[in-house]
What we know:
This protein has 13 helices and seven strands. It is an alpha/beta fold. Helix 1 crosses helix 4 (68-82), helix 3 (51-62) packs across helix 4 and helix 5 (87-98) packs parallel to helix 10 (209-221). The longest helix is centred in the N-terminal third of the chain and has 15 residues, at 15-29. The protein is elongated. The protein starts with a strand and ends in a 27-residue tail after the last helix. Mean pLDDT is 78; it is low at 223-314.
Amino acid sequence: MPLLLLDLDNTLLPRDAAFRAWAGDFLTENGLPAGDLDWLVMLDGSGYVPRSTVLGAARRRYGIDRSVESMLAHYRDGINSHIQCPDSHVAALREAREAGWTLGIVSNGGTLPQLEKIRLTGLAPLVDGWVISEEAHCLKPDPLIFEIAARRCDFRPAGDWKAQTWMVGDYGPADIAGAAATGLRSAWLHHGRPWAERAYRPTVSAPSLPEAVRVILAAGEHPSAGRGFAAAAAGRPQRSRGQLAIPASRLAPPPVKAAKAVQAAQAPQSAQTTQSAPATKAAGASLAQQVPLAKARPLAPIEPTQARWGDAAAATG
Length: 317
């Protein structure tokens, strides 16, 4: 029974859409220009900019006479009221489960906010376990967090667990780099973006979570294909144009001799430099009681609990 690990924000859950909805509500409730929506979305940086930075900038821009802490509480309540797990994602998880896969969530972020998302969206009964960076004291791309996830899912493979595990995520420096550092295969959700990292790359790239799951399940049905997407996809049902996953080999920079042809067919792209940043800790013991770490099975210590890669409550993912 192989293991499928999944990122939370912008992989399982459309977090950016929820933020955009909250930002629209924020502008309306405060009588602010609706045209500033794109400014807030830009500043948000898909959740990788600290909330204190985003809300602090909004507070100064609009002269809001409220503390950043009270704005943060309003933000968390608001964004979680908009977030949901699409039916197509639920169907993909069930398809993987029916195919015999163990499922787990690996998320960077604050424990309480991420647990609330898992609870509110109904993901808890759909997976075998989860790990969140703040409570685990380690962050993606640290290989330790993926090992913790496997243990919490009670994954006991016959042989090397890494050879039977895939990681799916949308953020290269955390999800894909972490999979590469750990020795896992990976699927990158490109969401219409070009791949820009040079030091590593995903095993496959797909436009959406359901498509990524279909590719991974097909690869599992053809073990002789190894890590090659083209061979793994052989014999799969025909899909509509424009929805095909992209082989990792096509994500690499083209040879210099083909530069002219590439320039004619593609627009220039720049490397992404988004950095993870600490997220403000959530408050409220009542929430902790509502969303217990029931799935987070106790582990025997495998390394000192001192956090690595900076603050474990870094940007969500």
